[in-house]
Amino acid sequence: MKIVFDLDGTICFSGRPLSPNMIQALEFLESHGFNIVFASARPIRDLLPILPVHMRHYPMVGGNGAFVAAEGKLISISPFDKETLEQLIPLIMKVEAEYLMDGRWDYAYSGEDTHLIRRNLDPEGKARNLPYDQLNEIVKMVVLRCLDSDQLHEELQKLPVVTYMHGSEDIIDISPRGVSKWTGLQALGVRPQEFIAFGNDANDISMFQQAIHSICVGEHPELGQMASEQVMNVEELVIEKIRELASSRTL
């Protein structure tokens, strides 16, 4: 059985790497026959540093489905097409947004150095911060803040994009239309009703809809309604739930 984990706010907290106790819980899962997949809003570049080295070759989905990697290699990306960017970029500039735009590996960042996103951005210093027009592809955008959020929301609804609001951080994730964690999982060969999912936010809805069993970590009204069960976003309780699943579903 495959088991898919969102990362931030689900099994790692405050942007920190997986804790030793969480790593042990995941290894306990593996010892009971589970195959682990990671699915995060982070691009692969920023997903890898929060994992222990021996888990960096695991199948993973990044950028809410825009990046797919396996065996330590990026196997596919889903960038914005030229026509969408020709509408999206002027909109971002019009509302004077502070942003993060992710390319295949490098990025363009215009926000403050103190922003939480910046603190978690390329922590190993392996990428370049370039002007956005020097990125070969733009795969994902995050709007950190802007002058007119109402106008931005209204205009984004007219474009072929998918948006996710992160209320606790007051940011907007923007991905190409048709991209989701579930499409990324499909690219890894994951099939409906053949996996368990852990998540905590709206960007996990697509995989919860396809999972045979799902666990919502913390309080999220929409995700919680469709989850098989819910657990508080306290690391010790999440670990307890992981161990409970492993012990009850030896494969």
TrEMBL record:
Domain of life according to the entry: Bacteria
InterPro entries for this protein: HAD-like_sf (IPR036412), HAD-SF_hydro_IIB (IPR006379), HAD_sf (IPR023214)
GO molecular function: magnesium ion binding; phosphatase activity
Cellular component GO terms held in the UniProt record: cytosol
The name this protein goes by in its record: HAD family phosphatase
Organismal lineage: Bacteria, Bacillati, Bacillota, Bacilli, Bacillales
